[in-house]
Amino acid sequence: PFLGHQRGGSQTPVYAAVFSPDGRSVASGGLDNRVLIWSPDALEPFDYAAAIAGQTVPPQPALALVGHKAAVRSIHFSQDGERLLSGSQDNTRAQRNLLRRAMAAN
């Protein structure tokens, strides 16, 4: 499984996930107030045996986008895949230019 969304060391729910238009990336949002952008091709199989043995399982690679003050409930890529719009339970939306990683919040 993808272990990206966490708060205080514990896993948190993912409320929204969407593939980019080219299908090479996924953006997910959840209770940890972040949007994570990750590549399914870059994920490694989860080591359940190590987790059961109490060993630390390394995090999967993802780009974290922060700025919301509450859970992220919706995500949408633009048709060209250059912009990402996210909506949060704090009644804000954020538009990010993924090429510049800039954020404009409303």
**N- to C-terminal distance:** 33 Å
Globally, the shape reads globular
**Quaternary structure of the protein:** single chain
Query: Looking across the biggest beta sheet, what order are the strands in?
Result: 3-4-5-6
Helix run count: 1
Instruction: Indicate the structural class.
Output: mainly beta
Q: Beta-strand percentage?
A: 35-45%
Main sheet properties:
4 strands, antiparallel
Average residue pLDDT = 81
Please bin the fraction of helical residues. Answer: under 10%
- How many β strands by DSSP? 10
Cα radius of gyration in angstroms: 14 Å
**pLDDT < 50 runs, ≥5 residues:** 102-106
Return the string of H and E elements.
EEEEEHEEEEE
Labels describing this entry:
single chain, 106 residues, mainly beta, four-stranded antiparallel β-sheet, 1 helix, disordered C terminus
Describe the structure in your own words:
With 106 residues, the chain is mainly beta. It has one helix and ten strands; from the N terminus they run βββββαβββββ. The protein has one helix spanning 48-52; strands at residues 6-7, 10-11, 14-19, 26-30, 35-38, 63-65, 72-77, 83-88, 93-97, 102-105. It has a four-stranded antiparallel β-sheet, with no helix packed on it. A hairpin with a 4-residue loop joins β4 and β5 (35-38).
